[in-house]
Amino acid sequence: SPLVGRAMLRGGAVGLGESRIDNVRRLRRGGITAPVMMLRIPSVTEAPDVVRLCDISLNSERAVLEALSRAAEEQGAVHDVIVMLEMGDRREGVSAAELMPLCDFAVGAPGLRLAGLGANFMCASGVLPTMGKLEALCAQVEAVEARFGVTLDYVSGGNSANLPLMEEG
Q1: Euclidean distance between CA atoms 92 and 114, whole angstroms
Q2: E strand residue ranges, the chain
């Protein structure tokens, strides 16, 4: 709802996240110009709409990155991507062995900018985040930044399942 989106932005949100392209389209038609993140991995066929309507998307498939790159080039745009790393939840993401090749593609693809890394916890398999898993994610972030000479804007270690870790300090 654009009304809800505007209220969130007035309340201090600097961007919005959405998992359905039709809802993003509704936000944009409703006058929302703030950054919008596609909160799920888009399909190849959605790439043109994702580039046109979203500022950033979560990704773990080379074919989708290729489609996003083509769409961005055609639209004269640069689309930010967050590469998702599989850390046990089995919902989305590439293995640690696949991470560097996929990031290498994203860094070199015209129309794309590698903006971050992410991992999902407590979604599909109920795998809890732990300090060890979050430290492993941070190590991957540091390795990607060092290898490609970039500073990632986003590191996503999951969702509210992390709150108990934060409460424990």
Answers
A1: 18
A2: 16-18, 36-38, 56-59, 79-84, 112-118, 154-156
User: Are the beta carbons of 157 and 131 closer than 8 angstroms?
Assistant: no
Q: Provide the whole-model pTM.
A: 0.90
Tell me which amino acid residue 17 is: G
At 64-74, the pLDDT tens digits run: 999 999 999 99
Helix pair angle (2-10, 21-29), 10° resolution: 70
pLDDT in tens, 78-123: 999 999 998 655 567 678 889 999 999 999 999 999 999 998 865 5
C-beta separation of 4 from 27 below 8 A? no
